[in-house]
Amino acid sequence: MRLKHPDLMLATAIALLNVVLVLLAGRATTGVASTGMVWTSVIGTILALPLVFVLPGYTLCEALFHKRSLDAVHRMLISLGLSLSIDILGGIVLNVFPIGLRALSWAALLAFLTALFALLVAYLRRKTVMIVKQPHRIRFNAYECILFGLACAVVMLSIGFSAASVAQQPRPGFTQMWMLPSDQSNNSCAVRLGVRSYELSPVTFSVEMTINGAQVNRWPSIVLAPQQEWERLVSIGSSETGAVSIEAQLYRSGKPQVVYRQVNITMYSARCVTEPGRGP
Amino acid sequence: MPRRQFSLIEKQHSLPEQDAINRVPKPIQIPWLRLLKLARNPEAEAYYSAQDATGAQFVTLGWLPLLALTSASGILLVAYAFGDSRAGGTAWLPFFFGGLLLIFVLPLLRLISAAPSRFERIGLICMVGLACYLIKVIASPLYFSFYDEFLHWRTVSDIASSGHLFSENALLPVSPYYPGLEIVTNALASLSGLDSFTSGLIVIGCARLLMIVSLFALYEQLMKSSRIASIAVMIYMANPHFLLFDAQYGYESLALPLATFVMFAMSPHQKVSVRLARLLPMAPFVMFAKERHKWLKSDLRWLTLTAWIALAALAMTHHVTDFFLVGLLLAWAIIYACMRLIPLRRSNLVWSALFAALVALLSTMRAGNPVIGYLFSFMGESFKELGGVLTGTGASRQLFVTYAGQATPLWERIVTLSSVGLIVLSLPFGLLCLWQRYRSNALTFTFGTVALFYPVSQLFRLTTSGAELTDRSAPFLFIPIAAVMAICLVQFWPLRSLNRKQSALLTCAVSLVFFGGVMLGTGPSETQLPGAYEVIADARSIEPEGIQAALWAQLYLGPDNRVATDRINQILMGSYGNQRIVSTIADSIDVSPVFLSSQFGPEDIAILRKAGVRYLVVDLRLAQSLPLSGYYYEQFEDGAYNHTSPIAMQALTKFSAIAQINRVFDSGDIVVYDVGGLINAPETP
Fold first, then answer.
1. Nearest to A106 among B190, B676, B677 (CB)
2. Considering only alpha carbons, which residue of chain A is nearest residue B660?
3. Lowest mean pLDDT, pick from A223-237, B445-459, B671-685
4. ipTM attached to this prediction
């Protein structure tokens, strides 16, 4: 048995599959896959691409020009142009509803529009005698297939090569150091002191901390691999009154005289804040 | 000889034309007549149009597979060039231009010949268009790196996190009011689970495809030849913004294809309307005419509806493109009305132009939309500067020298000047051909009128603010220019007499225009392309230290702190860091004096208080050299576009000496200062 409207059935099926996948993947309201599985993203992409860029426009185009046998290029063009326009206007409509622009609302809206237009086309086509030109078939011979395949492979290679060259671009390494006041539940004062290395190889650091010029803490050997972080919560003695100037310096091993990074904050110890005149 | 001339005039020209020709001095009468003969030659493309009509070769692939491979090789060469440039190599430029040569020149040579089928032509232009887009992709395959991309990325992130539109974006306050691009990205990202960067790349790729095919279909409708249409599309690709700017993740990259789509949808309007008008008297009596009339009317109605849907979407996507299209539709409608083809009130074109104007007006007048001020401040400054240059009261911008003082190599100057010169030179001839052959079509006539703005737009290159206006107008002006140049090309080099030498010459000429456009678009000395770090150089200033500092701010300082910083760290802190950037564009407060002054004084404190700044992000690398973009912090900062020496290191480190300012972060080049203690401290009398 031949299907009467295979194009419309396929469009509707893809649209509905999108809704099902969004519900299954748990992206209904967050827009982020809860399971984190790669396959949902791959299938999601394969299904989402036609729903976003082709199907609403295609079905609407078929509804508008059902009496005409459109040129394949023009049909493709109108499908793409209308789909993009429908997406934009659909986004404005979704914004009005409390759910907003989420995976489920997108899937529901685009699937609804596709199915609606498909039904309309099926209705309009029932009496129309379409003089459909037999579409020309594109035949690829082996030689052409090989050339296209090679072209695709070279493009993929170029993208991969570029991505690798960005990742391996020679850059100087660096290290971040920070110090921030920390909220304490018992009204005592503390600071969060941290170091994160983005050097090109493991580096040994030392950290010195002073309060009002007096050294209070020293961490003589902190070995950090690239991307590794070191953080400490340091309490500030409650005996201090007025403004407390806290400084921390980072040194690299082998250069103990040269300050590599430096941070400082002034705290008003009675209130444990960095802003005079403000309560905690 | 004079007798022969007269007979020629007698046969081919009307009486007023004869008079005009007779008034021309004798020595130039023959060249002028030859020129006219070529310009009005109806047979120039006849052979090819006939072939098109039969559609006999519709699906022949021809050289497409082979040229796809050569184009792919071109992309590989460009990827190698970028890799070499990133690694600090100096010999990458020949590879870059060699790659472009493979991508553009070989398909162009093929398209100029008569051999390719319509299908092959469409395949070739799509291939070249997408290959050019891939060049932008391989320039930054892992993350956004162009300045404008960060501005829109912030909007798309806000939509993803809130699920709603129109949230504030301090990086580009006008962006949330035109969220078309971000909406489509959000739809794809939400449904597929892809991140916004990858979704953005796919959306712009689809938009590029829409642009190419729409342009082709538009030109084909106007000139009735797929050969002229494909050549015109190739000429369009020579506009300076095609390779990079309109391939980036920005609203214009989607809006321009939508605008072209509207033009394509409206282009059959005149033909259908005229046919409809002719059928009208017969329709009540003749059955066939009645049916035909109904059919054409339905076509016209649905074409108009298609255009209106796209027009509404465009009004939500990009202001300038929308305004341009409104202007073009109005001009087209006026010309159409002057031709008195059908009564004005029955013209769908007129109604479409009015609808476009109404939608644009509604979009502009939306509460809080800052677009008018945003555009007028920029345009006003450009016109003021141009006025100064023309009247001699202001200095003109030094051409071919970057703001950092780098001079453009001589060969690049020659190519860019030749490119612009060739366009300007071909315009009068193209317009003559257009007048002779296509003036009965209102849209083509409108194109001819709009193309005249190109030479005028070049004047703005002499100004500092307006130089950008010249490049920004190119993607719009090239739509008519490409049509005019393609008409010129096919009329003066008719297909029947086109030999290999002429084909090669034409390929060289169009390629020259293309390479000139590429050089203009990639900036002086190709500074828009990947390479080593440079100070305030947009894509070249985006590097891991800045990105990691912004990510640190997001994680440790929390979102939406009011941050003041330089041009590059603004976009990094605003996007990766999710901070609220304080700037002239968003707050009408210029914080640049705080950074540029050598001493930190009460005026600086007053600015910080007024702006409510909590954190200052200072990039010490700014002291290394002059800013390539012309300014460090704000477009109207002291010395903007005229800095003669880099900012002093003392100006950047002065904050460390202030007791109330906390130095909370240090990564070597980037330091974050917490000025909360200073701005919130009780003021001393």
1. B190
2. A266
3. B671-685
4. 0.92
Q: Which of A80, A159, A261 sits opposite B206 (nearest CB)?
A: A80
Chain A residues lying within 8 Å of B180, measured CB to CB: 88, 91
Distance from the A116 Cα atom to the nearest Cα atom in chain B, whole angstroms: 17
> CA of B243: how far to CAs of B271, B504, B561, in Å?
34, 23, 36
pLDDT at residue B11, as a whole number: 47
Residues B107, B32, single domain; the answer is: no
Domain holding B657, by residue range, is 538-679
For residue B284, being part of any structural domain is answered with no
Q: Under an 8 A CB cutoff, do B59 and A136 touch?
A: yes
- Within 8 A of A14 by CB-CB distance, chain B residues are none
Same domain for B519 and B374? yes
Q: Residue B287, Cβ neighbours under 10 Å: how many? A: 9
Kindly state whether residues B220 and B77 are assigned to the same domain. yes
Whether B682 contacts chain A with CB within 8 A: yes
Phi-psi region of B525 (alpha: psi -120 to 50; beta: other; left: phi over 0): left
A88 closest CB neighbour out of B87, B138, B313: B313
Q: Is the pLDDT of residue B63 over 90?
A: yes
Residue B347 belongs to some domain of the structure: no
Which chain A residue is nearest to residue B58, measuring alpha carbons?
Answer: A136
pLDDT tens, position by position, B525-539: 677 889 889 999 999
Distance from CA of B560 to the nearest CA of A (A): 17
* B559, part of any domain: yes
What number is the average pLDDT over the span B164-168?
94
Residue B46 has pLDDT above 80, yes or no: no
Interchain CB contact of B163 with A (< 8 Å): yes
CB proximity B669 to A under 8 Å: yes
Residues B571, B579 contacting (CB under 8 angstroms): no
Of the partner residues B71, B122, B680, the one whose CB lies closest to the CB of residue A278: B680
pLDDT at A140 exceeding the cut of 50: yes
B313 touches chain A (CB under 8 A): yes
- For residue B574, the domain's CATH number is 3.40.50
Are B546 and B479 members of one domain?
Answer: no
Instruction: Tell whether B11 is covered by a domain.
Output: yes
- Average pLDDT of the residues of chain B: 90
Average pLDDT, chain A: 86
Whether the pLDDT of residue A41 is over 90: the answer is no
Enclosing H/E stretch for B93: helix B93-100
- Residue A89 distance to chain B (closest CA, Å): 6
Contact status, residue B670 vs residue B545, Cβ threshold 8 Å: yes
CB contact under 8 A, A81 and B214: yes
Q: Does residue A22 surpass a pLDDT of 60?
A: yes
Q: Same domain for B396 and B426? A: yes
The answer to whether B265 touches B325, Cβ cutoff 8 Å, is: no
Whether A277 sits inside 8 A of B682 (CB atoms) is yes
Say whether B21 sits in a helix, a strand or coil: helix
Over the stretch B2-37, which tens digit does the pLDDT of each residue have?
Answer: 433 333 344 455 666 677 777 777 777 788 888 888
**Which of B479, B504, B525 is the last residue before a domain boundary?**
B525
| Band (B247; pLDDT cuts 50, 70, 90) | very high
Question: Are residues B422 and B571 part of one domain?
Answer: no
Distance, CA of B464 to CA of B384 (rounded, Å): 11
- In whole angstroms, what separates CA B32 from the centre of its chain? 37
Distance set, CA B557 to CA B75, B147, B250, B491, B550 (Å): 42, 24, 29, 65, 10
| Dihedral sign of CA atoms B549, B553, B554, B560 in order | negative
Q: Is B658 on the interface with A (CB under 8 A)?
A: no
Assess whether pLDDT exceeds 70 at residue B514. Answer: yes
E-strand spans in chain A? 174-182, 189-198, 203-211, 214-224, 229-236, 243-252, 261-268
- CA distance, residue A2 to nearest chain B CA (Å): 27
Give the count of domains, chain B. 3
- Closest Cα in chain B to A60: B306
pTM, 2 dp: 0.92
